[in-house]
Amino acid sequence: MKILAHGIDLVDFGRIRGIYERHGQKFLDHIFTETEQQHALSVKNTIEKLSGRFAAKEAVLKLIGTGLRGKISWRDIEVTNTAMGEPKVNLSGEVERIATKKNIEQVTISITHTADFAIASAVALCEIDKQE
Q1: Mapped to the 3 state alphabet, what secondary structure does 94-105 carry?
Q2: CATH code, domain carrying 78
Q3: What element of type H or E holds 109?
Q4: Element containing residue 80 per DSSP (H, E)
Q5: Pick from 13, 7, 10, 12: which is nearest to 121 by CA?
Q6: Apex CA 74: angle with CA 70 and CA 77, to 5°?
Q7: Which of 85, 106, 97 is nearest to 4 (CA)?
Q8: How far apart, in whole angstroms, are the C-alpha atoms of residue 104 and residue 81?
Q9: pLDDT digit string (tens) for 13-46?
């Protein structure tokens, strides 16, 4: 596998907490899939989970090189966990289309937290012989 791109993002819990307190479900529905919402709302550290997933989505947008524009939706990027707790990203919609066009076959992510921040790193991978 070959690394094609990398994206990273840092999110302040206070920022996400403030948006969530002001906009509630509207914020959740705009940014997060049903699966992401269920997971974050089922744990006591909800803001930490939402912040980590938000940072992961931002990191993916950076690695595809577009940011949030055009037909891209926040919900085109879904962050779930494997049975072992490892974060996993699923692409759909416009983000998946762009990733395919760029020969991105896999996106791996890592998320970590401090007392006040979440940081996520995303790496785009492809087979070596498919690289342009």
Answers
A1: HHHHHHHHCCCC
A2: 3.90.470.20
A3: strand 106-113
A4: strand 77-81
A5: 7
A6: 110
A7: 106
A8: 21
A9: 999 999 999 999 999 999 999 999 999 999 999 9
d(CA 51, CA 118): 6
The C-alpha angle 129, 81, 106, rounded to 5 degrees, equals 10
| Domain limits for position 126 | 2-130
Region at 65 (left for phi over 0; alpha for psi -120 to 50; beta for the rest): left
- Tokens encoding 127: 């087979």
The rounded mean pLDDT for the chain is: 94
pTM: 0.92
Q: Distances in Å between the alpha carbon of 29 and those of 16, 32, 62, 114?
A: 14, 6, 22, 26
55: which 2 tokens? 């940072």
Q: How many domains does the chain contain in total?
A: 1
